[in-house]
Amino acid sequence: MSGLLGATAKLVLSGDSLVLRGAQRGNQPPPERTMGLAYIAAPHLGNQKKEIEDEAFALEAREFLRRRVAGKPIKFVVRYKTNSGREYGSVYTGPDMQNDDIALKLVEEGWAKVSDQARGKLNRSDVEAEEAALIDSLLDREEYARSGRRGMWDTKAKPSRPRLTTFDQDASKFLAQNKGRELRATIELVRDASTLRATLHMPTAHQSVTLLLAGVKAPTVRTNVPGQRDIAEPFGEEAKFHVESRLLQQDVKVRLEALPHGAAASGTFIGNVIHPAGNISEWLVANGYARVADLSVSHAESGPSKLRQLESAAKQKRLRVWQGFSGQIGGLAASKSFDATVVRIVSGDTVVVHDETRDADREFQLASIRQPRVSDPDQAGYADQARETLRRLCIGKPVSVTIDYHKPAQDNFRARDCATIKVKGQDLGVSLVQKGLAGVLRHRADDESRSSNYDELLVAEAKAQETKVGIHSGKPKQAAKVANASESAERARSFITHWQRSGRVPCIVDYVSGGARLRLHIPKENCKLTFVLGGIRCPRAARNSGEAGEPFGAEALAYTTRHALQRNVEVEFEGVDKTGGFIGTLWLNKDNSLAEDLLAHGLASVHEYSAAQSPYSSRLYAAESQAQRLKRGMWVEYDAEKAEEDQRQEKEEAAAREAQRQLEKNPAAAAAAQGLQPRIEFLDVVVSEITSPSTMFIQIATQSNIKELEDLMAELSVGQAPAPADFVPKAGQLVSACYTVGDEWHRAKIRKVLPSKKEFDVLYIDFGNSEVVGIDRIRPLAPKCSGLQPQAHEAQLAFLRLPDDSFAPDYVAETVSELRRLVEGRQLVANVEARPSSGPLQITLYEPDLGKSIVEKSVNGTLALSGFALATKSSLASLHNPLAANKIEELVNDARSAHRGIWEYGDVTAAEHCFGFVLTALCWGFTNPFIKRGSEGIEQIKRGNWVAQTFAETVFLFTNWRYVVPLAINLSGSAVYYYTLSSADITIAVPITNSLALIFTIMAGILVGEKLPTTREMLGMACIVLGVALCVTS
Question: Using an 8 Å Cβ cutoff, are 192 and 218 in contact?
Fold first, then answer.
C-alpha cells in the first residue's frame, strides 16, 4: 500500500482513538494529530465534566490498544475525513498490512465492532475494492468474536473495576495505608516534567491521583487552562516532551511518600516513579531540566546526596535551566571550618563557642533551622526543651564548626553568622529537628545560603513529621512555671533546712552575675535561686561599659562563666544571707570546688567570717596560700612579710572597733571592762553655726586651717564661670554655691534635690549652715578647691540632754538663745570628751582664759545650772569621764530645786516616767486574779514524792493557757518596768508602781466575780491615789 506515514503513538484516548506524534524538528515540539480508527467503534470512556459515565468495556478496549501502541512507532494511512476535519485511518504496528492492522485485532478480540457507517458503505456502488475488502475483513473478525463470545460479546463477563477520576478519600489515611508500597500505575498525563497524572490500579478501583516527583522541580508549563493565562517557562516544553516520550501511558510502579503542605484533600501526593529504564528524577536533574526541590528532596528514591551531586554537575556545565548561573557550585566554597568549645547556649538554635585560634568567643545560629516560637504560649515549652536538649548535647564539649553563611541584619534582628556544628560527628541541628524541637527553614531555589547538611535536616524533619513528635505532635506545650526560692530571705529560709539535709543537691548554673555569685536552677524542685560561694570574696566586675570594676573582677567573672555556666553541678547549702541568697559550696565535679579553683588562680581571697562557717575552711586557706606563694592573679605583688604586718594591724583595729561597738551597745559593762579614762584633747575652736540645742558646727582655729580657708575663700570669690548646659547636680555631690546673705560663693554639699529639680537643699561644709538655693546659684566645684577637708565639724555638748521636739519643746528657742549668748562670736577652747564611731563629737566648751578645765565654769555647766539641760549618764562621754557627768548632774539638780529654766513649773520628766509606771502596774495588777483563776485545780494533784509533785504541778500550769497567757502579760510588765527605771528615780518608781498594781488587782478581781471592796478598802485606795499624786508633783 502506498501513502503509509510513520509516527509515534503518543496517547491512546479510547479503544478507537489516539494521538500521533511526528518526528522532532530542531528544538521545536514535534507535530501532533488526533486520529480515529476507520470503520470501527469501541466503547468510550466517560467525561467527568459532562457527567458522562464510562461505557461498558471502555477501559478494557482502551487498555488493549494502549498496551500495543502507546509510545511505540507505528505506520498509518488516512482513510477519510469528516466534515469537521477529523481524520480516520488505519494504524499498523508492523510491516504486514493484513496481520498488523490494529483495528482488525481490536474487532477480533471483541473490544470493538464495525461501525454502522462502514456497514452502509457495502451497499454503495462507489466503494473502492480495497475499502470494501477491509470492511469485509472487519465483519468477518466481528463475527468470529461474536460467535466466540470474546470481549464485549461475552454475556457472562464481569464488570471491570470502577475508574475514579476524582479523589474523594481521606488523603492522609490513603497515604498511611499505601506509603512505601510499590503500586502498579499508568501515567495518564504529563502537566510538566515534574507533575504527572497517574492512575493507580488498586484492588477495588482504578484511582487517579496527581503525582509530584520527589526531590525535583521542573520549569512550569500551563496551557489551555480556562481562566488562567498560559505559562511556559524556559525549557519547560522541552523537559515535558522528554518525560512524555519516556513515561506517558506507560506501565510503571509508583511509591507514595508524602502529602504536599496544604494538599490533604486534593489527591496530590509526593512520590517516586519506578521504571526499569531508570530514574526519571535523576535524568531531569542531570540534564539541567529540573532543580532539586528542597521541600521534597528528603523523599527522593536515590536520596538527597545523589540529586545534589547531579545538580552540581549540571551547574558546572551550565546546562539548560543553569545557563545563567553565576553562584558558587554547591554553595559551600565560602565555608570555613574550625574546632571550638561550646561555652554558652543562648537559645534553642543559638550557641556561643570559644574559638581557640582567635582566643575569642563567637556566637553562631545553627544554619537553616529555627527554634519553636518563644512568643507562642503553645510552643514556649518546646523552646525551653530545645534549649535544654542543646545544653545537654554540647555545653563544654569540643565541636567542629562549619560557617555556612552570614545573615545580614533585618526586621529588628541583628546580623548573625550561621553554621553547622557537630559534636563527635553528630549534627546538632539534625538532632533537634529529629526530636521535633526545631523546624527547617525553606530557602529559595536560587539561594545557596543554607546549611552544608541541609538535606539531612530535611530528612530529619520528614521523620519527625511522620512520627509526630515535638512541634509536629499537634499538642501545645507551655513554658513551665519556675518558683523563685530567693524571692525574699523569709522564703529562702523555708527551703534551706530541706536542702541542708539533702547533702549535695544537683543543680544547673543558669546565669553568672559575678565571680562568686550565680543563678542556679534545681530541676527536681523546679525552682531557681541566687547562690553565693561561701568562704571567699571575689573582686566585682564592671556591670556596664561606663563603670570601672575592681582589679581581676572581669577575670574572675570570665573564669566562673567558662567553667560553670550551664553546667551540671552539685551544691552544698550552708546558710542564707539577708537578701534571700543562698550561701554554700559549689562542686564542678566530685572533688573540684569552684571556690577553691578561684582561690588557687588568684581570682578571689578568703573571707574570714564566711570561711569560719564553712566545713571546708582549711581547704580554702590552703588554696589561697598556694596562689600567694605562686603570685597568681591578685597576688602578683604579694609580700609575705608586709602581709603579716598588715594582718597584725588589721587585728588590732578590729579589736578596737569591737571594743567601741561593745561600748556603744552596753556602755557601763564595757567601760568597766576596758577601764576607760577621761579624754584630754583640747582644741581652739569657733562655733560657726548652731542648728539646734543639741547640734552645732565648730571650726578648729589653727593658723594653718585659718590660712587655708582664707585662700580657699579668695579662690571662690573670683567670678564663677557659667555652668555647663548638661550640669545636673545630684544628692551627695560637692558644688560651689552662692550664699544668699552677702552673695558669696562657698563650698557646699547637695543634701537633697527638691521635687521641682530646680531647687536644692545644700550644706556649706566649711561653716555648717544650710539653705535652699536655685540651680542658678550652683556651679561645679573646681578640682583645685576640693582638696581641703571640710572645716565645719558637727559637735554636741557632752553630758547634757538639751530640749528638742520630744523633750521640753517649749524651751527650744530659749535654750538656743542662751547658747548663742554664751558662744557666738567668741574663740573658745573645746575638750573632745568622746569621738563616737558615728555621730557628732561630744565636747565641753571653756573660756580660753579660764586656765583649767572646771566643768561647772564651762558652757556645759552654765547651761545645766541655768536649767536648760538634763544630765545623761548613758552617753559615751559620761562613761569616759564619770566625775564630770556627776558634777553636771549636781548642777541640774540644783536648777531643778531652784525651779530655773525648764524646771520652773516642776519636773518635766515626770510625765515620761509615769506612763511607764502606770503600764507596768496595769500589767502586774490586772493579771493577778486571772493567774489565780488559771491555777485552780492544782490542789487536786497528788504524787508520791516532792520531785514528782513539783514536776506534775509545773506541767499542769504550763499546759494550761488560762494560766500561761496572763503570766506572759505579767512578765511583759516587768520588762516595761526595768526599761522605765533606767531613766527614772527609783524612789518614785517603787511606790507608784506597787500602789497602782494593788488598785488594779482589786478592780480586776471585781470583774472576775470576787467580792466588792469594803469601805476601809475604798478609803485606802483613795489614800494611795493621793500619795501617788504627791510623789509625781513633789
Answer: yes
Which residue spans within 588-664 are E strands per DSSP? 605-606
Provide the pLDDT for residue 239.
Answer: 93
Q: Residues 6 or more apart from 888 whose CB is under 8 A from it?
A: 799, 800, 855, 860, 861, 864, 869, 871
Pairing of strands 206-213, 268-274: parallel
One-letter amino acid identity for 580?
G
Residue 200 contacts residue 206 (beta carbons within 8 Å): yes
Strand partners, 211: 196, 269
Sequence-distant (≥ 6) Cβ neighbours of residue 427 within 8 angstroms:
420, 421, 453, 456, 457
CA distance 251 to 246: 11
Can you read off the three cell numbers belonging to residue 367? 544554619
Which burial class, exposed, middle or buried, applies to 950 when counting CB atoms under 10 A from its CB (0-12, 13-18, 19+)?
A: exposed
**Rounded distance between C-alpha atoms, residue 30 and residue 237, angstroms:** 11
Q: At what angle do helices 986-1007 and 1015-1033 cross, to 10 degrees?
A: 150
Amino acid found at 637: E
In contact, 209 and 268? CB cutoff 8 Å: yes
Residue written as grid cell 569560719? 612
Check residue 1010 and report its DSSP letter.
P
Task: Give the Cα separation of 180 and 271 in Å (integer).
Answer: 9
Whether the model pTM is above 0.70: no
Closest to 64 (Cα-Cα) out of 109, 114, 8, 17: 109
- The Cβ-side half-sphere exposure at 658, using a 13 Å CA radius, reads 7
CA distances from 368 to 4, 354, 423, 454, 771 (A): 60, 22, 18, 7, 67
- Distance in angstroms (rounded) separating the CA atoms of residues 921 and 998: 8
Gyration radius of the chain over CA positions: 53
Taking the CA atoms of residue 226, residue 228, residue 230 and residue 231 in that order, the dihedral angle to the nearest 10 degrees is: -140
Helices of type H across 442-544: 454-467, 489-501
What whole-number distance in Å separates Cα of residue 734 and Cα of residue 741?
Answer: 20
Plot region of 874 (φ>0 → left; ψ -120 to 50 → alpha; else → beta): alpha
pLDDT at residue number 709: 81
Look at residues 729, 728, 809 and name the one whose alpha carbon lies nearest to residue 763.
729
Coil, helix or strand for 791? coil
Q: Please state the length of the chain.
A: 1034
**Residue ranges of the chain whose pLDDT lies below 50:** 331-334
Q: How far apart are alpha carbons 446 and 86 in whole angstroms?
A: 46
Beta-bridge mates of residue 687: 698
**Are 195 and 293 contacting, i.e. CB atoms less than 8 angstroms apart?**
no
Residue-level pLDDT at 884? 87
- pLDDT digits 0-9 by tens, 124-172: 877 888 888 999 999 999 999 999 999 999 988 787 888 998 898 889 8
> DSSP states of 476-496 as a string?
--PPPP-EETTSSHHHHHHHH
Q: Could you tell me if 538 and 598 are in contact, meaning their C-beta atoms sit under 8 angstroms apart?
A: yes
Pairing of strands 734-739, 216-217: unpaired
Task: Please tell me the distance from the alpha carbon of residue 266 to that of residue 175, in angstroms, as a whole number.
Answer: 12
Closest alpha carbon to 61 in 126, 120, 106: 106
pLDDT at 907: 66
Cα–Cα distance for residue pair 194/201, rounded to 1 Å: 21
* 3-state SS, residue 229: coil
Residue 480 CB-density burial (10 A; 0-12 exposed, 13-18 middle, 19+ buried)? exposed
842-851 long-range Cβ contacts below 8 angstroms, 24+ apart: 842/795, 842/796, 842/797, 842/798, 842/875, 842/876, 842/877, 843/685, 843/698, 843/795, 843/796, 843/797, 843/798, 844/797, 844/798, 844/799, 844/884, 845/685, 845/687, 845/797, 848/684
Residue 342 and residue 428 in contact, taking contact as beta carbons nearer than 8 Å: no
Angle between helices 304-317 and 454-467 (to 10 degrees): 150
